[in-house]
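Morning!

This is the sequence you dropped in the shared folder:
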Amino acid sequence: METRQLGRSGLYVSEFALGAMTFGMPDWGCDEETAIRLIDRYLDAGGNFVDTASGYLGSEEICGRALARRRDEVVIGTKFGLPIGTGPHDKGASRKHIRAACERSLRRLQTDYIDLYWLHVDDTATPL
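The structure's back. Tokens below.
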């Protein structure tokens, strides 16, 4: 599979990313066993960019289990922004929320770094 440089990031990602939104959602996606097989087949075919999010319930955990033994082969992108509490800084792009959401994603993904991390939903309340 061909790769391309991602902007000026220094990362090279496969032309086709593996979207993990439906992993762990058997009612309309796939169960964990199927998701892990898909991830393995994607990586074996030369893919290297997996896209997930904290809001994809169960997806980061499944990706973490599947990618732990192959972490050096993959670029992981995940997203944040969904509420983690009811306070004014418990959602969106507040510094407190970004830090807390990132720490949770790192645990779920079983890694000590995330290659790409971005805001999943609009946040009109937090000035940039």
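Headline: Residues 3-119 form a domain with the TIM Barrel fold (CATH 3.20.20.100).

More detail when I'm at my desk.
O.
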